[in-house]
Amino acid sequence: MILIIDDDPEFTRSLKLHLEEHNFIVVTFGNSWQSLNFLEKQIPALIILDILLPEIDGYDFLKFLRENKKFYYIPVIVLTAKSLVKDRIKAYSLGCNAYLSKPFSMEELLSITSNLIAQSQNYLYDFYSYSNYSKSPAKQTILPHPLSNSFELTCKEQKALNLVIEGYMNKEIARNLNVSHRHVEKYISRLFNKFNVSNRTELVRIALNNFYSTN
C-alpha cells in the first residue's frame, strides 16, 4: 500500500488513479496530522510526500519518520514543486529515498516506486532473518554507505552529475551539454561505475552525501 501526502486534491486524485492502474493500493491525506494518525494504525510500503504542507511541512514529517524506530525504514519519495538544489540536498540529508520535482515523468515515478518497494522488502527480509539468527542484531540502515575512496570526475562527468542531481533526464542533459544522447549514456554509465550504484536515485544520494555536487 502506498501513502500519498499532498494538499492538492486534484493532483492527488490524478496520481492515485495512475498508481491504481498499475495495481497499487493507494491511500491519500492532505496533511501530516492525518497521515500520522493513519501510521499509528497501518504501515504503508512506501510514502509519496509533498514538502509544501500545512502545519507540519514535508521536511519535518520526514525528519519524524527517520527518528522513529517504528517508521524509519519506510521508503519515501519526495514529490514537490520545490526544484532548487538546496531543497534536494535538505530532503536527502533528512533521509528521503528519491526526489522528483513537478512536473515529473510518471514512468520514472513508477520505476522508482517499484524498485524502492522491492528493496525495502528485501531489507526487511534480511533484517528479520538476521534477528532470528542472533539475539543482538547489529544496527542496520537503508541509507547507502559513504564512499571508501575519493576519485576525480572528468569535466563532462561532473556537469552530467550536476544535471542528474537537479533532476534532468538524459535528453535534457544532452541538450544542456550540447552532446549526443549516446554520449550522455556513456557519462551516466561511468558515473554508475565510479559510484558503484545501479540507478539514478542511489547516484544522487551518494554524490550529495559525499559532496560531489558543484552546483
Mean pLDDT: 84
In total, how many beta strands? 5
Poorly predicted ranges: 123-145
Structurally, how many domains make up the residues? 2
User: What portion of residues is helical?
Assistant: 40-55%
Cross-sheet strand order for the largest sheet: 2-1-3-4-5
Q: List the secondary-structure elements in sequence, H or E.
A: EHEHEHEHEHHHHH
Give the name of the CATH architecture of the largest domain: 3-Layer(aba) Sandwich
3D architecture notes:
The structure is a single chain. The protein has 215 residues and is α/β, with parallel strands linked by helices. The chain has two domains: 2-119, Response regulator (Rossmann fold, 3-Layer(aba) Sandwich); 155-209, Orthogonal Bundle (Arc Repressor Mutant, subunit A), CATH 1.10.10.10. It is 53% helix and 10% strand. It contains nine helices and five strands, in the order βαβαβαβαβααααα. α6 (155-165) packs across α8 (181-195) and α7 crosses α8 (181-195).
Spell out the key features of this protein.
Rossmann fold, five-stranded parallel sheet, alpha/beta, 53% helix, 215 residues, Arc Repressor Mutant, subunit A, 2 domains
